[in-house]
Structures are given as structure tokens and as C-alpha cells.
Amino acid sequence: MSLEINNNQDILGNISNSLQEEVEVTGEHQIDASQLEYGETAYEEEGEHEHTLFAETLFNIGGFPVTNSLLTSWVAVFLIIILSLVIRVKTSRVPSRFQSFIETIIAGAYTMMDMVTNDRKKSEKIFPIIFSIFIFILINNWLGLFPGIGSITYNHTVLFRGGTADLNTTLALGLFGVIAANIFGIVMVGGWQWFNKFVNLKTILEIPRKIGKEPTVVLINPINFFVGLVEIISEVAKVASLSFRLFGNVFAGEVLLASISAMLAYGVPLPFMFLEIIVGIIQALIFAILTLVYFTIASTEHEH
Amino acid sequence: MEILELFGVDWKLLIAQLVNFIVVVLVLWFFALKPLTKTMQKRNDEISKGLADAKSAQERLNQVERDAKDKLNKTKNEAMVILEEAKKQAEKSKQENVVKTKEEVAKLITKAKEQINSEKDAMISQAKTELAGTISLALEKILSSQLSKELDKKYIDKVLKDLK
């Protein structure tokens, strides 16, 4: 268990080394140092597994590292495919109880989206992406919480780790969300409008035309231009905030549950388990709604 | 990008997760959400259409009921009129019949009376002649010798006068 803590420190030190090499290096050379620092706890919690910031590689397929988080995500994708097929088969004009339940969720999601977009047509266009984000994150969050899932190990590493407890997943989702929002913006308001949101050539070109009427444009429009440049940074910030928020919450939840379980494994973790189930929903919802907001902002015409 | 490496960001994994997510989007959209939303939309349309149909059907039913009532009332009135007329006609023809019968009866009576009278007269005259003959015969037999012809005639006339 102490290997991974050393890993972290090591990665900070040796950025260029790959993960695999480090495991070997730390395993051989730094085991003494680690046992000095963490040795006691390491022996006490023999069964428990240490939580690392990154997902651990289970095995490689032709140079492609399959991590425990990726495996969980595959399980999540599999579950979603099964669910979709069940819905597909069960869909009929006279709804069953199951279909009514799904329809209630979908209708609720539409209502919620309409509150943000104020436009049913726009909601209908974005709906599949936003809803998929919600479902994918929710399933991933909850899979990581599955009781006892952390105790299944493979080659001394945990076999399943919540898909969203890995920055790769959240970063992929965040990048996808923000890039898709911008593409949606281009489609909805046009390329020139979209481009001017970031590199505001319009305001610069406006100056000679308006300078006769309002001399203040000489001051205001360059400011607008720089505001546009700041927007570029804000897009990057969106990706960062989305991915780190989700990752941080889910990872913290898993660490919390593990810590509580380590203290007293019976009864005490239960309220925390419920808490994490709720956090799972809330974080999925926040991610989906923020992405929706980005879509909406990107698709709205800029007024100046 | 030191921080990304600290969190174990690997482009291969990132792309793998992106592929996962895109698979989720496609599968969810084409297998679940699209048919489901279509079905929901269809059903909503059907329900609203059904409600509209029910409303129009109710209106039509009301209209038909009103029409039927109107027709029934009209027919009733017509029947009443016809009945009234028939009654009047019956009354009239009855009275006519009575008058006609009375007249006929009166005619018959007068006719009968006339016949009786004429028969009576004939009978009387016949009786008179028969009687006169009989009497004269009887008288002749009784008084054949006793009375003269002249006296005899005188007597007979007197008797006949008295008879009259």
C-alpha cells in the first residue's frame, strides 16, 4: 500500500519517467524509506488498499494501459447499453410501469432544460448530449460506491475504481462538453459571430465608423477586445473547473468512505454511504447543468 | 503540465474515456431516447386528438338529440291536427247520415200513408159496389113481388143515401 504514496512523490520528482518504471524503481529502492514513514499503518491495514490520486494500471494491451477506472467505465458503458436495449425493446404506445418511470425522468429532464435554455427546440437539440453526460457520470459515480467493490483486487491493485475518480474521465468529459458547446455555438450563431466572441475584430472595425458620433468608443472598444481574449482563458477554465470539481468530489468521497470504514467498518459508514450516493447524483447534475449552460451561452447571440 | 501527470493523465486513457462517452451518447440516443421521445410525442398527439374528437362527438350527439326532439315535437303536432280534422269529419258525416236517414224515413212514411189511403179508398169503393149489389140482390129476393119497380128503386136509393 505504501508504494503508491511514494509513487506520487516520485512522479513529482521524475516527470519524465513512465508509470511502470517507477513502480519497479520504488519497489526496489525506496521501500525502506516508505516503511520508515508509513510502515506502521501499512501493516495495520493489511486488507485495505491505499487510494492514489490516479487510477492504477491493471494490465497492458499492446502498450495501452487498462486502468481500474477504465474497466469500471467499460462496465458502466455496458450497463448503459443494456439499459438502452431494454428501453428499446420495452417501448410501446401503451407504457408499462418501467416505461412510465423512464418517461417521467425524461420529461422532468426536458422541463429542467427548458428552464435554462428557455427554448424547447434548443433543448431538444442538446438533450441527448446533456442526458448522456448525466447518466454516464451518475452510473460511474455509483459504481465506485458499490459496497465491497474496493476489496476485489487483481495483481495487488483494486480491480474497480469509480470511473469518475480518475481525472482522465472527467477531463475527457469536460473537454468534450466545452468543445461541443463551441461547435454548437458555431452552428447556431455562425462562425464569424463565434470568432468575434474571442477575437473581437468587430469592435475594432467599428471604431472609425462610430468615432464621429461617440468619441468614447476609442476607449471602450479596445476594452471589449481584451474581454474577448479573456474569454479564451475562460473556456480553458471551464474545462478545468468541470473536470476537477467532479474528480475532486468523487475521489474525496471514496477516500472518506475508505477512511471511515478503516476506523469502524460496521454501521458508521452507512450515513456516509448515503451522503456519497446523494453526492453522486448532485455532481452528475451539476456537470450536466453546467455543460448545458455553456451550450446555451455559446448558442446565444452576443449583443453589444 | 506537471499537474496533469500528478493526476495520472494519459492521452490514451483520455481518448479511451472519450470513446466510451461517445458510445454512451450514440447508444442512448439511438436506442433509448429517440424512440422513446418519438413514442411520447406520438402519444401526446393521439391524446390531444382523442380529446378533440370526443368533444366534437359530444357536440354532434347533442345536435342530433336536439334535432330528434324537434322532429318528434313537429310530428306530434301534425298528428294532433290530423286527429282533430278526422274527428270533425266524422262528426259531420254522422250528422249528415242522420239527416239523410230521417228524410228517407219520412219519405217512406208518407209513401206508406199514401198507399194505405189509396188502398183504403179502393177497398171502400169496392165494398160499396159489392155491398150495393148484395143488398139489391137480397132485397130483390125478399121484396120481388111486393114492391113496385118504382118504389123499389126509390127505396134502394134512400138506403144507399143513408149508407153514405
TrEMBL record, chain A:
SUPFAM superfamilies linked: F1F0 ATP synthase subunit A (SSF81336)
A single Gene Ontology CC term: proton-transporting ATP synthase complex
Bilayer topology term: Multi-pass membrane protein
Keywords recorded for this protein, A-Z: ATP synthesis, Cell membrane, CF(0), Hydrogen ion transport, Ion transport, Membrane, Transmembrane, Transmembrane helix, Transport
Signal sequence residues: none
TM helices/strands, residue ranges: 71-89, 126-150, 170-195, 246-266, 273-297
Places the protein is found: Cell membrane; Membrane
Main subcellular location: membrane
Record has rRNA-binding as a keyword: no
Record-linked Gene3D superfamilies: ATP synthase, F0 complex, subunit A
Record's keyword annotation contains Transport: yes
GO biological process: proton motive force-driven plasma membrane ATP synthesis
One function term, GO molecular function aspect: proton-transporting ATP synthase activity, rotational mechanism
Family assignment from sequence similarity: Belongs to the ATPase A chain family.
Entries under HAMAP family matching the protein: ATP_synth_a_bact
Function noted in UniProt: Key component of the proton channel; it plays a direct role in the translocation of protons across the membrane.
Protein's recorded name: ATP synthase subunit a
Gene: atpB
Automatic annotation (TrEMBL), chain B:
Transmembrane segments: 14-33
Coiled coil stretches, renumbered: 47-122
Location(s), subcellular: Cell membrane; Endomembrane system
Membrane topology of the entry: Single-pass membrane protein
Gene Ontology CC annotation, any one: proton-transporting ATP synthase complex
Domain of life: Bacteria
Pfam families xrefs: ATP-synt_B
Family: Belongs to the ATPase B chain family.
The protein's name in its UniProt record: ATP synthase subunit b
Organism: Candidatus Komeilibacteria bacterium RIFOXYC1_FULL_37_11
Lineage: Bacteria, Candidatus Komeiliibacteriota
Gene responsible for this protein: atpF
